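In the design runs reported in the main text, the only information available to the sequence generator was the tokenized backbone. The following block is the verbatim input for one such run; it is reproduced so that readers can re-run the procedure and compare outputs position by position.
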């Protein structure tokens, strides 16, 4: 028994010393709803912070949700911090609520915007960082746009939609099931008018069930292309050519709305930031393959933009 304990202890010591010491890691509580991880470079003289905002669903700080674990946002944060950029990534409020078994059924899209602003204000109040950038992934792109204020030094849209989420849903439904496209359009038109409906086919219940409609109505108030147009800060728009959820046309639409924005399309990168050589099957499976590295091109592009 003593021998086994000694072996285990030695293994722990070896593993501990083999970890990457190029950055420090600290758990930060912003509010009773928001908790995240702050990574800071160990030897950098720069004090630049990138706040990473996660996408739709109950997504945690690492980019994972439910039974899908890819650690994409964790890898993104670590990649940037190894390049001298401090990062903060946080669990969406619903993650903590699920863990506590106390989900707020009245949650709105605007709550996510308020959360992003709270995170931003938390770090601005510290007066530690000379520059702060917001990186919004997927749904987090729109959240980030709405959270931007005059003290944000740059904004990055990562796989973010350019059109209203209602139009995105109609397009996706039509592509997957053309016979349901017209029904989806009728429902979206209703929701855009601020009205709920029970008139939807069962096949679309997971998208338009009555419980989620108030949230969707709130979300559909915003058109990303209109919002990004009014941002007067450096903007970087990134999309992968193998993104199954957000096409490169969405990124191009955002770019068209702001002449000062920079557009970068990354060959073969998918929605969870992995580079995919094969087809849709490999692409879909990768959402639950945490062993994959994220795109090095992505890390380089982000680093160059933030340090410019």
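Verbatim output:
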């Amino acid at each position: 028994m003593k021998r086994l304990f000694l072996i285990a202890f030695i293994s722990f010591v070896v593993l501990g010393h083999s970890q990457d010491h190029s950055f420090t890691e600290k758990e930060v509580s912003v509010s009773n709803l928001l908790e995240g991880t702050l990574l800071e470079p160990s030897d950098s003289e720069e004090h630049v912070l990138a706040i990473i905002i996660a996408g739709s669903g109950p997504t945690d700080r690492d980019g994972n949700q439910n039974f899908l674990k890819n650690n994409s946002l964790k890898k993104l944060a670590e990649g940037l911090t190894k390049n001298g950029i401090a990062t903060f990534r946080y669990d969406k409020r619903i993650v903590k609520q699920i863990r506590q078994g106390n989900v707020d059924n009245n949650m709105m899209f605007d709550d996510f915007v308020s959360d992003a602003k709270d995170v931003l204000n938390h770090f601005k109040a510290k007066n530690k960082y000379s520059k702060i950038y917001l990186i919004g992934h997927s749904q987090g792109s729109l959240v980030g746009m709405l959270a931007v204020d005059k003290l944000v030094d740059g904004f990055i849209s990562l796989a973010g939609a350019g059109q209203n989420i209602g139009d995105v849903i109609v397009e996706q439904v039509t592509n997957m099931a053309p016979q349901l496209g017209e029904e989806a359009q009728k429902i979206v038109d209703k929701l855009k008018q601020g009205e709920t409906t029970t008139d939807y086919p069962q096949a679309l219940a997971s998208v338009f069930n009555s419980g989620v409609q108030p949230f969707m109505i709130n979300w559909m108030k915003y058109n990303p292309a209109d919002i990004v147009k009014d941002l007067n800060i450096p903007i970087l728009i990134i999309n992968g050519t193998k993104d199954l959820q957000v096409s490169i046309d969405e990124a191009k639409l955002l770019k068209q709305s702001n002449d000062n924005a920079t557009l970068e399309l990354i060959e073969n990168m998918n929605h969870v930031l992995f580079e995919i050589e094969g087809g849709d099957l490999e692409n879909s499976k990768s959402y639950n393959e945490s062993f994959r590295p994220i795109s090095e091109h992505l890390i380089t592009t982000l680093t160059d933009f933030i340090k410019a």
